[in-house]
Amino acid sequence: MNKITHHPSDALLRSHVDGDLPESLAVGMTLHCDLCEHCKRKSDKLTQEFAAKAWQEPAEAESVDFSQMLNGILNTEVETSYLKEPSVEHIFIDSFHYELPRVLTRYVDMKWNQMGAVSRARLIEEGATRSNLLHINAGGVIPTHTHKGFELTLLLDGSFEDESGHYHKGDFIWLDSSHAHSPKTTDGCLCYTVQNAPLHFTQGISKLFNPIGNLLY
């Protein structure tokens, strides 16, 4: 198994644990932490710190009976459906088969659009910020482009490479307008992506793709 070498920043991880991220980015962070033991440990530690701080009773809240509140939570009846093991969902794209990560099973009813070797399924739309599942077939290449905003790519399966290196399952890649790259994959890959602006193709004939850049956004 390849080692995960690309991780979110500490600031982004802290914002995630504190609940400050929009759904699209929070899902990306959850996917990474489910795959990366290093970031999961950091997340768990931050969660404990935030929990300890939250349970420190402020002077103005001395009248709150936390024991009664906790008893109410513990004595609440839980529907058995919530205790069942969640079903495993699978997706099939051309000749590829993937098991969908648990956090993505709520979006299982997805519609795929295909352009050449690239297939995209929209998941979450929050104003200008959009998240997708992006699949690139074996041997596929996305022409050289930059980003008008930011782009998060969380590699869920397979591998790809660009001018900056090789990426494997679990890698968390954050790019902005200062980066230009051309991702390509030998064996195919499945990614979770978040963007807040369309791609901007930059070289030669690939510039002709700019009018349809929204297909990848």
From TrEMBL:
It holds the Pfam family Cupin_7. Coiled coil: none annotated. This is Anti-sigma factor. It comes from Aliivibrio sifiae. InterPro entries: Anti-sigma_ChrR (IPR012807), Anti_sigma_zinc_sf (IPR041916), ChrR-like_cupin_dom (IPR025979), RmlC-like_jellyroll (IPR014710), RmlC_Cupin_sf (IPR011051). Gene3D superfamilies: Anti-sigma factor, zinc-finger domain (1.10.10.1320), Jelly Rolls (2.60.120.10). The lineage of its organism: Bacteria, Pseudomonadati, Pseudomonadota, Gammaproteobacteria, Vibrionales. Residues 103-196 form the ChrR-like cupin domain. It comes from the Bacteria.
